[in-house]
Amino acid sequence: MVPVSGEAAAMKIRPTTDEDLGLFVDTLHVAFGRFPETPADDGGGVWWSALEMGRNLFAEAADGRPVGTAGAYSFELTLPGETVVPASGVTAVGVLPSHRRQGVLSAMMRHQLTELRGRGEFLSVLLASEALIYGRFGYGPATYTQRMTVPCHEAAFALPRARATADAPATGPDTGSVEVLRRAECVDILEEVYDRYRRAQPGALSRPHRWWASGAGQPPVSPAPRYIALHRDADGVPDGYAAYSVESGTLTVDETVATDDAAFTALARFVLRHDLVTEVVFKHLPPGHPLRHQFADFRAAQVSDTDWLWVRLLDVPRALTARGWFTDGELVLDVHDPFLGEHGRYLLTVRDSKAECVPTDREPDLSLDVRDLGSVYLGGTTPSTLVRAGHIRAHNPDAAALADALFRADRPPHCLHWF
């Protein structure tokens, strides 16, 4: 344990119960210097209505006062190859300002990781409030998201059809339809469309039914007023939606979910042609999304990107054998886990889309920190990028290129869910 001083030296960590909910929420808000919003009469409509109190922790001072909090949600994460696995979503992590830099956070993180392993889990994920904090606990940024701002007067689309070839027939016009609903009118449809989408999207997290039922999280999960542009295919089956609001001439799309590119394009055209709107902001697009290339003027869109989902591997062999693979090959990984004081060397062998990962004494191809392995795990960061950054050490000239080929995903990983 990291040495602590003062009151924190007598600190203890304990699991919370349902009776601790109010105190847990209050303590976390004090840690962030905020005041809780008022929940609805039924207790819903606030982010903490989805908390799993049996999975949360209190750090308590010697007199029993809580000075730190940490929580976890039970999610499913989609891996490359459309494999769906359990994942803990770490959340609600905070330490009172009076007890920071005394080892409280490190003690909670170590306790939590040990507890997750005890539950048989092999990876956890989080959204980092500050990028400097979680790398030292073994988490690495694994998915990224783009914010795109498009002035409507510059948003003319290029030719709607690609030139047909024998190998790539032209895509016909969208034969579906778009209708506008209020969120309250279609929550069940949103839940179903999102669930279909996330099962095929690497990096996506599940949204358990209780999130939708209680209105926990951010729009469109929360009951905040939103319009829903709902796309249906030619058979009338919902296959995409855009949740949006309009204020002062700006239409902001909280998220666009679509099961194929045609539905996404139809929704983008719809919001960009909205009356009395001067610009459209898409808050969450996957890196490399083709929308920007669909405009006649490539420079019409202003794009910024940021990290989103951070991944932490708790059991390297189980994690590496769980995901799908798309290139055959062998790689020896020398993995250091400084926070938990662990070190392992593994032979990763991929044949016919399946991997075997076993301890080995062979000389390594790559030496890396567990947080770097978390970054490359979903295919959103290439190993060669981290080699060039000085984080991963390649022991032979071909190692980085082979690792890039092995760890690539079937499509760029992306996560929309906020927790």
UniProtKB/TrEMBL annotation:
> One MF term in GO for this entry?
aminoglycoside N-acetyltransferase activity
UniProt-listed GO biological process terms: aminoglycoside antibiotic catabolic process
> Which residue range or ranges hold the N-acetyltransferase domain?
11-160
**Does the record's keyword annotation contain Transferase?**
yes
Entry annotated with the keyword Hydrolase: no
One Pfam annotation reads Acetyltransf_9
**Active site positions:** 134, 419
Assembly mode: Homohexamer; trimer of dimers.
Concerning its family, UniProt says: Belongs to the acetyltransferase Eis family.
Q: What is this protein called?
A: Acetyltransferase
